[in-house]
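Key result, reporting period 2: structure in, sequence out.
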């Protein structure tokens, strides 16, 4: 089942997501499969549960599209449940990032080279693992979502001002994408 992608401006994107209790979520594999279906339909390489309106600590990645440049990324498809970043290290490097919740905006974002994290997979098996390069970047981007952060938060005040009109348009539904989106309800003042 494909979910609509939650657009910039919705408060769910700014909330720190809550941990998932395995006993309270027995159908996690079905949710993970639905997230992958949604992500592929939107041509993404990562998707976090808050981006479909679920404030829970779950995100998925599939770094395969970068596999031509880095063969280690072919087949790197994972779900991360209740992830916690234990350490980030290495020199920060820029890359032009985008986000399914903030379509048509791409900006250079600096992130550290390596991320070490603790997480569970969809079988509730615990992992502690390090990722570097593009894999780390995708994970860091999605991890930010479960922490209530967006890639635009890493931009300079000037860059934020320059894209503010586009952000306002996205929050109002003034955007053209080939995937289903859900836009925030803007309440009128009294």
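The corresponding designed sequence is given below.
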């Amino acid at each position: 089942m494909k979910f609509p992608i939650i657009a910039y401006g919705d408060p769910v994107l700014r909330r720190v997501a809550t941990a998932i209790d395995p006993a309270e979520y027995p159908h996690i594999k079905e949710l993970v499969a639905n997230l992958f279906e949604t992500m592929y339909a939107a041509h993404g390489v990562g998707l976090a549960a808050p981006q479909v309106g679920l404030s829970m600590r779950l995100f998925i990645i599939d770094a395969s599209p970068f596999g031509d440049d880095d063969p280690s990324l072919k087949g790197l498809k994972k779900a991360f449940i209740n992830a916690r970043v234990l350490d980030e290290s290495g020199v920060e490097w820029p890359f032009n990032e985008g986000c399914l919740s903030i379509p048509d905006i791409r900006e250079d974002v600096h992130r550290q080279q390596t991320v070490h994290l603790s997480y569970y997979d969809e079988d509730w098996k615990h992992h502690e693992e390090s990722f570097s390069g593009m894999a780390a970047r995708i994970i860091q981007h999605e991890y930010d979502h479960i922490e209530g952060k967006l890639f635009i938060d890493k931009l300079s005040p000037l860059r934020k001002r320059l894209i503010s009109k586009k952000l306002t348009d996205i929050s109002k539904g003034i955007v053209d994408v080939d995937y289903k989106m859900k836009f925030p309800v803007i309440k009128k003042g009294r």
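The beta strands are 5-6, 46-48, 58-62, 77-99, 102-120, 126-132, 181-182. The first strand starts at residue 5 and ends at 6. This case is discussed further under Risks and Mitigation.
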